[in-house]
Design brief:
Number of strands: 24
Distance between the termini: 56 Å
Strand order of the largest sheet: 15-16-19-24-7-14-17-18
Strand content: 35-45%
Shape: globular
Mean pLDDT: 92
Largest sheet: 8 strands, mixed
């Protein structure tokens, strides 16, 4: 039974009476289904339903949170009493509210449908595997002390693990990662990714070390920009980009934005965890540094009238932080063949397993499971795993004009951790040519 908005508003209004004060209540109801697959069989099924509620007070840089693991009227009273005591305010009287009735947990409605779909997809494309399938439905309601409540629900699909591929060098284990919002078209998209991941390959050579030029293809450039733009431009972050407002950092063709309104991507949402409707935020506009990602508190400190809708919580008990969502790079006009020809000699990379950035120094690292050597503008040897490394400002300057003309959603990018808080993210990018990165072999 949902909470009555009028009751919530009446109870939290006293927390936001003084100038500069704000208060809200976040309610989360989560259902999760997990299937563990091994060689075509489901070896374990897990179903879970949880709920939580958090009351928050904020004024300037000060913030207080109180969270409970129930989302009924009694839980609301408990959280508000704890918050009021912490603030030294008059607290609600102790009285049991209307508790939710105990209901038998129902199976997730999509479990049987996806079990059948996955059985067929895996049998055809990756019959020997160890995979974890997860479908999470998260419904969040935000009740502000002032203004109307807002609600949003997301259903997120993930398939991760490894499978045995038959290649020209014999059987080999390959990792697999795919994330997307649940939709009718997702099964076909997953099939395409499985087919591509299982393609036969030549025996890999050791990746060369030193300075290298590379084309980041198939959408994986979104990982690079997530690390070197999204994280540094989360409001409050101190990085080499700090203090460079409106500075030209890259070629004029490069336009990069964070777009939470892209609900076809894993990191999209209709409103953030402070109840703010997000809007696309240009991070680079014509190669110039444009804007930062903000929540309410950071927007106020920066002298902005309002947040741009990037206040996100991993869990209700976490404070909302300015976080990225979907990193989207605008396309250019170059074909795949033109990109390879302009590269000349270097690496062609289509997958990254992970990425990281050290904001204080601006150093970043991207790990790739495989690459192709490019010689005289043509794809050549298969290369083993390695890392690309560089620094934020030099890397941005070394991106060449002539981006690929087709955008690719990069479904391997799905989760991002910062300070222990993990949120859904994703990206879409064309092929990108970048010069002068450091490569190191992991073979």
């Amino acid at each position: 039974m949902p909470l009555d908005p009028a009751t919530v508003a009446r109870w939290i209004e006293p927390l936001a009476k003084e100038p500069g004060e704000m208060a809200d209540v976040l309610v989360e109801r989560r259902r999760e289904a997990v299937l563990l697959w091994r060689d075509g069989e489901v070896v374990e099924t897990r179903l879970a339903s949880t709920e939580a509620l958090a009351a928050r007070w904020q004024r300037g840089g000060q913030q207080r949170l109180a969270a409970v693991s129930r989302a009924d009227e009694s839980g609301l009273r408990e959280a508000l009493r704890e918050l009021q005591v912490t603030l030294g305010r008059t607290s609600l009287p102790i009285r049991e509210g209307k508790a939710l009735s105990e209901e038998e947990e129902e199976p997730h409605p999509s479990v049987d449908r996806w079990r059948k779909r996955l059985a067929a997809l895996l049998a055809r494309n990756a019959p020997r595997h160890k995979l974890r399938w997860t479908l999470v439905e998260v419904a969040r309601d935000v009740f502000p002390a002032r203004g109307a409540p807002v609600s949003h629900t997301r259903r997120l699909f993930s398939l991760e693990g490894s499978f045995i591929a038959a290649s020209r060098r014999g059987d080999e284990t390959r990792t697999f990662s795919f994330h997307g919002p649940e939709s009718d078209s997702l099964a076909e998209e997953l099939r395409v990714w499985l087919v591509r991941a299982a393609e036969p390959r030549e025996a890999p050579m050791t990746c060369p070390e030193g300075e290298v030029d590379a084309v980041l293809a198939g959408g994986c450039a979104a990982v690079l920009f997530h690390e070197i733009l999204s994280h540094p431009l989360e409001a409050g972050a101190i990085s080499p980009l700090s203090g460079l407002a409106d500075a030209r950092l890259a070629v004029a063709e490069l336009e990069v934005r964070d777009d939470a309104t892209r609900l076809d991507l894993f990191g999209g949402y209709e409103c953030d965890d402070e109840g703010v409707r997000p809007r696309p935020v240009k991070l680079l506009d014509g190669g110039r540094l444009a804007a930062r990602l903000t929540n309410r508190a950071c927007a106020a400190r920066m002298g902005r009238e309002a947040s741009n809708g990037h206040g996100r919580r991993a869990e209700p008990a976490d404070p909302p932080l300015p976080r990225g969502s979907n990193l989207v790079v605008a396309v250019g006009s170059a074909t795949r063949e033109e990109m390879a020809r302009r590269l000349g000699q270097g690496l062609w990379i289509e997958d990254f397993e992970s990425g990281s950035v050290e904001l204080s120094s601006g150093s970043f690292r991207l790990r790739f499971p495989r690459a192709r050597r490019v010689r005289r503008g043509r794809l050549a040897d298969e290369l083993g795993p390695g890392t690309l490394a560089g620094e934020i400002l030099p890397a941005l300057k070394r991106i060449e004009t002539g981006l690929g003309r087709q955008a690719h959603i990069y479904r391997s990018l799905g989760w991002c951790a910062r300070g222990g808080q993990v949120v859904a993210v994703q990206g879409s990018a064309p092929d990108v040519l970048i010069r002068g990165l450091a490569v190191r072999s992991l073979a």
